[in-house]
Every structure is written in C-alpha cells, then in structure tokens.
Design brief:
The protein has 147 residues and is α/β, with parallel strands linked by helices. The protein has a single domain, classed as Mannitol-specific EII, Chain A (3-Layer(aba) Sandwich), CATH 3.40.930.10. 37% of the residues lie in helices and 19% in strands. The chain is built from five helices and four strands, in the order E-H-H-E-E-E-H-H-H. A four-stranded mixed β-sheet has the order 1-3-4-2. Strand 3 and strand 4 form a beta hairpin. The longest helix has 14 residues. It starts with 9 loop residues before the first strand and ends in a 5-residue tail after the last helix.
C-alpha cells in the first residue's frame, strides 16, 4: 500500500462544511503535491453536480475524481477523513472518508483502484479508517493491518 498511498497524502480530521468542501480539501492535497492543478478540483465538483452523487460508492466513502485531462500533471491519490461527515444526497450518506484520484489517462488508475477497492470492500474498513488518529494508522487500516 505504501507505493500507492503515502502518509504525506493523508489528512485526518479535516473540517468541511459540505460535500463540495470535502472534495476541495481532498483535492488540495494533490494540488500541494504538484499532481493536479486547482482547475481539476472544479471539474470533480462539476461532475457531481451534473451526474449526481455517483462518487459515493459505498456507505461512508466517496471516490472523488473527474475524467483524465490536462489539469492532472501526474497520476496520484490522496485520502482524507472528515471531522464531521457530510451528505452528498446519496443512499450511502453520510460520508466520512474521501479518496481523491487524479489520472493522466483512462487506464493508469486501474491498478491503483483495484488494489484499494479490494481493501475497502472488507466490512468495517471505512468506519475504522474514519476513526484513525493519524495518517500512519489510516494507511495501516487500509493495508489490512488494523489497529
């Protein structure tokens, strides 16, 4: 998991007023890393506004992303946990964990996603990540190490 998500790309207990703020905070991690331009964050938000809350793929978890474009400088991934869960108007609300994915093309993200998806599908994993006290702890839980 270390080669997919490192501690510098994880934020714990982030404050966001709503789902847009949550996407912005997750995207900011990738902007700070030099992986995406701020315009990509706007594209992620626009996608949800146009297509609905399809990014809330399981209870408590959103996978923020948009189509590959010139605003993605390098494929990368970030994870945030929210201090207070937010609603996307999805049956899987409220969301407390947001994974932000930026991809340079339509295929490079598949390996990252498949590795993470298998780990996230385990029952109870999302609530455990949401309660993590540190980036290191969140990555250990995501990796299957638990606490």
């Amino acid at each position: 998991m270390d080669n997919i998500l490192n501690e510098s790309h994880v934020r714990i207990g982030v404050e966001a007023e709503d789902w847009e703020g949550a996407i912005r905070k997750a995207g900011d991690v990738l902007v700070q890393a030099g992986s995406i331009k701020p315009a990509y964050i706007d594209k992620m938000i626009r996608s949800v506004k146009e297509l609905g809350p399809y990014i809330v793929i399981m209870p408590g978890f959103a996978l923020a992303h948009a189509a590959p474009c010139e605003d993605v400088l390098k494929s990368d991934i970030a994870l945030i946990t929210l201090k207070n869960p937010v609603c996307f108007e999805s049956p899987n609300d409220p969301v407390s964990v947001v994974l932000c994915l930026g991809c340079t093309d339509s295929s490079s993200h598949l390996d990252m996603l498949s590795a993470i998806a298998g780990l996230l599908m385990e029952e109870g994993r999302i609530p455990e990540i949401a309660k993590a006290g540190s980036a290191k702890e969140a990555i250990e839980i995501l990796s299957g190490g638990g606490v």
